Amino acid sequence: MDFDTYLRHDATALAALVAQGAVTPQHLLDLALARHHAVHGRVNAVVRLMEDEARRQLQGPLRGPFAGVPFLLKDALQDYAGLPTTNASRAMRAHVPREHAAVVRRYLDAGLVVFGKTNLPEFALKGVTDPELFGRTSNPWNLAHTPGGSSGGAAAAVAAGIVPMAAGNDGGGSIRIPAACCGLFGLRPSRGRVSAGPDVGEVWFGASSEGVLSRSVRDCALALDLLQGAEPGDPFIIAPPSAPYVELMRRAPGRLRIGFTAASPIGTEVHPEALAAVRHAATLLRGLGHEVEEAAPQIDGAALATSYLHIYFGQVPALVARMKALGAGDGEPELMTRLLVTLGGALKAPALSTQLAQWNTFARALGRFHQRYDLLLTPTLAHPPIAHGTGDLPAAQQALLGFLQRTGMLGLLARLGLLDSTVQQIARDNLRYVPFTQLSNLTGTPSMSVPLYWTADGLPLGVQLVAPFGREDLLLQLAHQLEGAQPWFDRLPAMTREGAHASGGAQPAAA
């Protein structure tokens, strides 16, 4: 098998070839490593190679539906025993977990051959992937642009052809945003569908979920079959699907009622290309027989953003404190993380509790919407994938905030309420490119980004669909239908297609 053949198969198909004896897991690993080395200097998707661990894994029997398929973890929450989980932070380079996270154990039990960890912003706190520790990751569709975040390294690795599928997690859009930026399929499961154990009960009060980014819907469905289900001690157990997702996916979704909106919930500008992406999806869905009309949940988007950002700000000091308790070193976090620690530390417990209580209000409103509409359609992003550095705080503002933080004035001003306008500006700037994804996180509902649209500049721009709680099956059924109506599997970045052409049938050298 050469790289071109490797690229033409999803993870499900590669596993079938391994099971048939048509290709060996060792050869697939060699292909993945060779591709990583070929693109690493341009893309910077994989920040920790685990070749020795992968070779040892190949020495034992490989069992499971993905047996022999190369795979990558994200360097956050997905602990691999004996190796650091850095969260892309200098402070966490010495943190070495003693046991696998539940999701990692399930990936390994499925036969996936884990050979590395992917890049992310420090502590997974941004929608772009640019940590100081590892350097920024670039979008294979255009290296001057971001692959999104926080699972940006995972998305870039899949789009660049290193692996057909990679692990991510999503606390505010971190699977769907990079999927939309990189022309991939990404599904965020319902709250509690996949265990966050054993070290954590619920990440970000349950706003975060584990999942994968993939080029095919069936890979995602099969991965969800393997990941779903509670671990001992989980805070609650969600009802399991009526059948395996990979079977439910193949069933026709029926005629669905879909409400769509392209208006930013926080009142910021939505790029014409994002509007066009939603209109294109609505037309495609109507052509498939679905009833599609403009409608949106009766939710105060600004209030939802405020609630999300209270949790976002409030979690960071607790996260950094927890990391120190787990063995974080003396390395200083990045400026923005330090600012969030200070600003979050100024939040009072009653304010945080009030904002958490708001989640119920949003969930009830979305529930009422779903009584009338099966799904909600929105842009995934309000703007095509942004160029590197777009949205960064101006250097002068960074310098001022850094000075105030170092001198202790920032915390004092925040506690006195004198930084409210600055905090609101940071919050608004942080969400203006990605205002649509947080609804699903706070309401605990499943959602997906589907690659149905490319801009005039050739950049992917996915659309989002949100389902009622527990209805991943409905999302997968519709995604499978859309995949058949407008296939995207073979739509790849030029650098990936050129890599396949350049392989010329040659076998990759073992790394």
TrEMBL record:
<dbReference type="InterPro" id="IPR020556">
    <property type="entry name" value="Amidase_CS"/>
</dbReference>
<dbReference type="InterPro" id="IPR036928">
    <property type="entry name" value="AS_sf"/>
</dbReference>
<dbReference type="Pfam" id="PF01425">
    <property type="entry name" value="Amidase"/>
</dbReference>
<comment type="similarity">
    <text>Belongs to the amidase family.</text>
</comment>
<protein>
    <submittedName>
        <fullName>6-aminohexanoate-cyclic-dimer hydrolase</fullName>
    </submittedName>
</protein>
<feature type="domain" description="Amidase">
    <location>
        <begin position="29"/>
        <end position="476"/>
    </location>
</feature>
<keyword id="KW-0378">Hydrolase</keyword>
<dbReference type="InterPro" id="IPR023631">
    <property type="entry name" value="Amidase_dom"/>
</dbReference>
<dbReference type="GO" id="GO:0016787">
    <property type="term" value="F:hydrolase activity"/>
</dbReference>
<dbReference type="InterPro" id="IPR000120">
    <property type="entry name" value="Amidase"/>
</dbReference>
